Amino acid sequence: MSDLDIQIPGAFDPFAEANAEDSGAGSKDYVHVRVQQRNGRKSLTTVQGLKKEFNYNKILKDFKKEFCCNGTVVQDPELGQVIQLQGDQRKNVSQFLVQAGVVKKDLIKIHGF
Amino acid sequence: MAEEEHPEVLPEVKEEAAPGEIHPFDPTKKKKKKKVRVAEEEDLEAVDKVTEKVDSLALTSTAGDGIDSSFAGMKKKKKKKPVEGEFEEENGETIAEVNGGEAAEDEDEEEEAEGIVLEARFPWEGTDRDYKYEELLGRVFNILRENNPELAGEKRRTIMRPPQVLREGTKKTVFVNFMDLCKTMHRQPEHVMAFLLAELGTSGSLDGQQRLVVKGRFAPKNFEGILRRYVNEYVMCNGCKSPDTILSKENRLFFLRCEQCGCSRSVAQIKAGFVARVGRRKTTT
């Protein structure tokens, strides 16, 4: 009896859905690209939510080369590493990320005006 | 003499027409009636004055005719009033036409209209046959349309006015009709503000006149884009695309419930999430 009892939940994994949802939640792992205004007509682009497997510094290097701008990787206590770029690079960033196959297009969220 | 009198009469008639033309934009029946009556009385008084003048001026026969005809128009209008009240559609137009002095034509038109409406209402009248579904459906819609013309429209579109934006000094932007837009969306201004500020990546507050003051320079277009996104995410129903929705908070989660189709969906937590993201953003320049 007890064997059966154990087996039944074993056959039907109650966490299957939850796990599936987790992978679904993985689809919620948006990459947020934001713009922030600075003084004058200067602005700042931040890229948050890239997968941790990536080497942020390498991505940043390519960003910098591609967009001819400077940038840095900022360590945030809550959200981990965030890439900062000089200037409004939202379109460039999303285009680049999609082309390089780092992120899918529908996972990129562009914020800001 | 007669030629002098006519121009005096005509302007009065035209003035009558003017308020009549405005009426179709009044959504309620009662207002319409009241206003029309008041206008009528005024007009009558005005006409009376004119006639007095005319009397004192010892009229010729032609002048009298002109005034008589105008009077006839007034009387007809009065008689028609209750009838017109029943027909919601284009009340003002008919009145305007009456005022325009095309009394005879107008009567004909109205009779026609009456006939049409009656037929549309009861196509089975006078026969023993059963009602057809389409006819009954049509009847229902007619009644609906008569009772509240706003509802019966095929698709109601809520139109949001474009945001009005002013510059306060050089570094602050004032969003003037922020409250209006919140009301048209039926959303709490705090909620909208949190979203706006999060998206703009700045700080801001409501001022004394309930305008939103945002730090930084922004064009109206920017606000428009963000509001569009806001509507898509937090106002529009996913199923039926209607903006007639309610945002409620249950167990820390925001739910969007549609008033039209009754469907509900959870919505990304705006406040905590977005605030956190804003806090995360470093303003190290």
Could you explain the architecture of this structure?
Chain B: Pfam families: eIF-5_eIF-2B. Chain B: It comes from Marchantia polymorpha subsp. ruderalis. Chain B: Belongs to the eIF-2-beta/eIF-5 family. Chain B: Residues 103-112 have a biased composition (Acidic residues). The complex is a heterodimer of chains A (113) and B (285). Chain A is 40% helix and 26% strand. Chain A has helices at residues 2-11, 15-26, 56-67, 90-100; strands at residues 31-37, 43-48, 71-76, 80-86, 108-110. Mean pLDDT of chain A is 76; it is low at 17-27. Chain A is built from four helices and five strands. Chain A is globular. Chain A is an alpha+beta fold and 113 residues long. A five-stranded mixed beta sheet of chain A has the order 3-4-2-1-5, covered by helices on one side. The longest helix of chain B is centred in the N-terminal third of the chain and has 28 residues, at 29-56. Chain B has helices spanning 2-22, 29-56, 61-86, 91-99, 103-121, 133-147, 178-185, 189-200, 220-235, 271-280; strands spanning 165-168, 172-175, 204-206, 212-215, 245-250, 253-258, 264-267. Chain B is built from ten helices and seven strands. The model of chain B is unreliable at 1-5, 7-36, 54-107, 109-117 and 271-285 (pLDDT under 50). Chain B has 285 residues and is α+β, with helices and mostly antiparallel strands. At the A-B interface, strand 1 and strand 2 of A face helix 8, helix 9 and helix 10 of B.
